Amino acid sequence: MISMIAGEVVHVKGSELTVMVGGVGYLVHVPPGSHEVKCGQDVRLYTTMVVRDDAISLYGFFDPGQREIFTLLLNVTGVGPKIAMNIISRMETNRFLDAVITENIPYLCSLPGIGRKSAQRIVFELKERVSREFGGKVTGGGGVEDDALAALIALGYSESQALRAIEGIDADTVEEKVRLALKALMR
Question: Rounded to two decimals, what is the model's pTM?
């Protein structure tokens, strides 16, 4: 198992990096949009190797917490490396852990590749383990977004409508986020 690699990036193609370490170039899949990495840059990646019948792949993360979440997600039925990488690219580690512990299905559904059933499965399969391993370390969920989502649902919008409306809205307060989401819903 390769746990970490450090070396020079010699090729970048989308979310794949080729990292030169000791004369060997390793192809490493990183979360989409996680870092703006350029050729010639030195990187340190925390890695997980995934062995399948048809391939051996290396997945790398700039943060060891992301690697832990990736490994947890791979243990969930129906979640493979591609979905796990998409989730990691769009979430904060503590917020994800908090969502699992508090069974925040709407937040999990807002992550790419996760529908209601998958979100419920993630909570069912990971809640006990996350509570045991990370329970004391999890600080703060995503208050503003969660409260805005709850407000839109209380106003009669479906969960999917509310999630689509608040996605990508950058606001500091619940009121502002709800106001902007309502504007988007009225169009």
Answer: 0.70
Pick the CATH number of 143-186 from 3.30.70.1650, 3.40.50.150, 1.20.1070.10, 1.10.8.10: 1.10.8.10
Under DSSP, the state recorded for 127 is H
- What angle do helix axes 64-74 and 93-101 make, rounded to 10 degrees? 40
13-51 confidence digits (pLDDT tens) = 989 999 999 999 999 999 987 668 899 999 999 999 999
72: left (phi over 0), alpha (psi -120 to 50) or beta: alpha
Q: Enumerate the domain spans of the chain.
A: 4-61, 64-134, 143-186
- Whole-angstrom distance, CA of residue 45 vs CA of residue 117: 32
CATH no., domain 64-134:
1.10.150.20
